[in-house]
């Protein structure tokens, strides 16, 4: 259904407000049918279907969205890989920040050095807004009716998203929380990699034993190496599910040497001497934790020697950072949310042993064996319709209201409620609602 007739839909007035009446014209039914077709798709298919529906009205190569309400995947793109492969949040965020709801913007967006004619549509149907960008095949201005149709359709889609986010079932909430935690961990690791590179560059620029030409050449080498490493990171993460412990430590060592190469601190490395395979998330976390700890250690006064080593046993990876500094480091000094909390994701532990005047030993322990999975939450035993009914129960709705909302009979609602109470092992609607709120 790619043919859309937006003319005469009467979706709104020129100022974006509702018109005095519906003003239903010959294009209203196709437009409403198209809107229903989009929002009835599974979440992963909404953007592709929205792109297909709009292709007849606004011919385009690719479509992208930045939806701030979605923790699972706020940035999505679809279409020509020549555009989508080079597009990211960095290009979309300014359009979200500067866009005016109800006033679609037509202009050019530069992606990887190439300017593309685009139509950017912002909606405030969600609290922090959402923007849709269509990478057009032509640059001729679009008329007001087409712009109004695209705006109305995007508002409808984002309103639908907001409702799903506000009334998410526990499974969706768990997926979003997991994705948000993973994204935060990745961002933290990239930030530390950038910080390590910048620290190395500053060490070169501040050093007095290199002349200007040598300092520039060294700084350039460091920057180029860092860029190559960052660009290769995504491909490497996809290709490597496990790393031998000795190779994982070698990669850590290479990233640490620039931190101390031109400073007064001597770095001693203790390789694990083991080829035991480490899961990629374990190796990444261990490297990130060591880098973060070492950078804090180097901020201390009077540190002249730092030892970094890994110990690999059958069950545990221990990453140890030991210095000869003042012995005043603590858990708080290592930065909340940067070290200990990251280890928590892998059921790891951080120990800090500081002896004033003698130095500090920081040990990060990560289990290599997956612990026994906890018992599944009782809500996972419920079917899709039962979860819908339970959602209404949690809101305090009675059977008649639930029947009206779900377009089923009251006797069907009673049947579902009885099943819910049995599966959850509770004796009342209130207890079932409490379980739902606890999970959410």
Automatic annotation (TrEMBL):
> Is Transcription included in the keywords of this UniProt record?
yes
Q: Which CDD domains match?
A: LuxR_C_like (cd06170)
Q: Which PROSITE patterns match?
A: HTH_LUXR_1 (PS00622), HTH_LUXR_2 (PS50043)
The secretion signal range is none
Report the Pfam families cross-referenced here.
GerE
Note whether Metal-binding occurs among the keywords: no
Q: Under what name is this protein listed?
A: LuxR C-terminal-related transcriptional regulator
- List each copy of the HTH luxR-type domain by range: 375-440
Keyword list, A-Z = DNA-binding, Transcription, Transcription regulation
């Amino acid at each position: 259904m790619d043919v859309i007739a937006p003319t005469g839909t009467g979706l709104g007035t020129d100022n974006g407000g509702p018109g005095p009446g519906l003003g239903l014209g010959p294009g209203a039914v196709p437009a409403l049918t198209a809107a229903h077709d989009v929002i009835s798709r599974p979440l992963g298919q909404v953007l592709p279907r929205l792109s297909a529906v709009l292709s007849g009205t606004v011919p385009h190569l690719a479509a992208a969205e930045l939806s701030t309400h979605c923790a699972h995947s706020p940035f999505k793109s679809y279409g020509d890989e020549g555009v989508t492969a080079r597009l990211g949040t960095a290009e979309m965020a300014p359009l979200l920040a500067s866009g005016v709801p109800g006033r679609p913007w037509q202009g050019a967006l530069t992606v990887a050095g190439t300017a593309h004619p685009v139509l950017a549509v912002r909606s405030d149907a969600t609290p922090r807004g959402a923007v849709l960008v269509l990478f057009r095949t032509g640059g001729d201005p679009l008329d007001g009716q087409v712009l109004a149709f695209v705006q109305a359709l995007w508002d409808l889609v984002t309103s639908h998203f907001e409702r799903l986010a506000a009334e998410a079932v526990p499974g969706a909430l768990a997926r979003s929380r997991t994705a948000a935690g993973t994204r935060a961990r990745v961002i933290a690791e990239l930030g530390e990699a950038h910080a390590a590179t910048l620290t190395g560059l500053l060490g070169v620029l501040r050093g007095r034993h290199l002349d200007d030409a040598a300092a520039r050449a060294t700084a350039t080498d460091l920057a180029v190496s860092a860029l190559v490493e960052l660009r290769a990171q995504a491909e490497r993460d996809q290709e490597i599910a496990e790393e031998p412990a000795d190779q994982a430590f070698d990669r850590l060592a290479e990233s640490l040497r620039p931190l101390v190469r031109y400073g007064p601190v001597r770095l001693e490395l203790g390789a694990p001497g083991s080829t035991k395979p480490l899961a990629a998330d374990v190796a990444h976390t261990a490297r990130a934790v060591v880098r973060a700890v070492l950078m804090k250690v180097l901020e201390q006064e009077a540190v002249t020697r730092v030892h970094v080593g890994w110990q690999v046993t059958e069950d545990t990876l221990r990453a140890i950072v030991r210095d000869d500094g003042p012995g005043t480091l603590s858990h708080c000094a290592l930065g909340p949310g940067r070290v200990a909390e990251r280890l928590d994701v892998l059921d790891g532990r951080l120990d800090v042993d500081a002896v004033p005047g003698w130095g500090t030993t920081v040990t990060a322990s990560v289990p290599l064996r997956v612990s026994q999975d906890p018992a599944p939450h009782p809500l996972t035993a419920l079917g899709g319709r039962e979860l819908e009914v339970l959602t209404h129960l949690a809101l305090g709705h009675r059977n008649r209201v639930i029947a009206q909302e779900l377009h089923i009979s009251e006797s069907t609602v009673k049947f579902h409620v009885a099943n819910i109470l049995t599966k959850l092992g509770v004796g009342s609607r209130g207890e079932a609602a409490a379980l739902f709120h606890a999970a959410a």
